[in-house]
Amino acid sequence: MILRCDNNNCLAVFHHAHTKHIEIEYRYVQELIDNGTLELEYCLTLENVTNIFIKLLGAKQLQHHLRRLGLA
Question: How far apart are alpha carbons 72 and 54 in whole angstroms?
Fold first, then answer.
């Protein structure tokens, strides 16, 4: 499974095995990455389809994401 993220700092946390003070959830995600179940990948903010659910978007970008989700 590929998890795309537009936050480099978030991705960096999971690429450093010796991060201190990390939550149990992060350790679980790190385990999924280590065993190959999950892969993290950077994507541009403008191409992040999940923004449709968490950000106010202009009409063009909203239509773009709706098409990518098969909803328009």
Answer: 19
pLDDT at 51: 86
Mean pLDDT, rounded, of the chain: 83
Q: Give the residue carrying structure tokens 């450093």.
A: 16
Name the phi and psi angles at 19, rounded to 5. Answer: -70, 130
Amino acid present at 57: L
Structural contact between residues 6 and 43, judged by C-beta atoms closer than 8 angstroms: yes
CA distances from 19 to 16, 29, 35, 65 (A): 6, 13, 18, 34
If phi > 0 it is left, if psi is from -120 to 50 it is alpha, else beta; for residue 3 that is: beta
Taking only the tens place, the pLDDT of each residue in 20-55 is 666 677 788 889 999 999 998 898 888 888 888 888
